[in-house]
Amino acid sequence: MSSGHKTMSAFLAVIGSLIAVILGLCVRWPLWAWPILLGALAALAGLPQFLGRRRRPIIPPEHTLEPDLPIPPVERWEKIVRDVALPSRSADYDFLFTAVVRWIPSDTAHGAEVSFAGLAVDAVLQRAADVTAAQLPHRASLVQHQLSGELATMVSDPSGRVRAMAEHVEVVLSDTDRERLDKLATVRKNETVWEHERKWEQSKRAYLGEDVLSSAGSAVVWWLAKNDDRVDRAVADIGLLAQLTAVANDECVPERLHPYLSDTPGFKEAEKLREEAPDTLADHFTRFMTSTGVEEDDPMKLLFARRVAEAAKAAGLDEADTLTRLIDTWEVPHTESFQQGDDPAEGYEEQGYAP
Hints:
Distance between the termini: 147 Å
Oligomer: single chain
Transmembrane segments: 7-25, 31-51
Region (Disordered): 334-355
Keywords: Membrane, Transmembrane, Transmembrane helix
């Protein structure tokens, strides 16, 4: 208990005793009550001292190794850095870094010889650059949150003289870089869509050209698969399908399908023009081959036709080249009856077509 507390306690004890004596005289207390009053006043005066001794520690604070003194507040320093360019994963695109750098010196003995601000800012920027270098530039918002967590802890710099952190982190891109990235993203998206459309078109052309329109029969089968309940319509459209197949393969409609072309649009006009036009050597030869009854899959048909074309060319006929091109369009399956080095004429004579 301090001296002030002791003085106040004694003063109150004296005042209380006087009040008790005056009250006792006024009411004329009996003689046996005065000793009790004096004892109560003495107990009341000693109670504060007793309570103060109970609260006092066993070992006085002045005799302890670490006196219970107030700890001085830790002094911190800070500096604002603005729009510092940090690298990204894409070349020529930098993040702009803004933050409040805070630090605590660790080596106070050399405080006058070291710029703690420079060490702290360099340490924070190095930690930030390690994060941004692995991120894409259009992820600036995500990078900002990552840096806010990464730089939120005091970490010593490589020299060990300062511990630094950063607060109020902001990461943005320049306006020009953001516009360029937006344009590039739009171009990439359009290119992806165009590439898918091109592949889809190529697939569709391959399906139609190599499968559906590979022959008139394939076209008819495809039409029936699409309209399995319209067989009569399929028969009526054989001529159109045959013409479409011939055009798709740059060929003429086979003669066996000509009866189906009589009702197709433009066929009669084409037939009329062909009848009015003078017959060519190719026309005469085609009718001749039809009249002989030679089957289209006869392996000797192509050999005979080529001999005729060679003879026409040797005779100097003007339409020999046209006849040769016509024969080149004929398709005759290859057989194993003629091996490399054999004379085709021998097989031709064996079939009874001696020239």
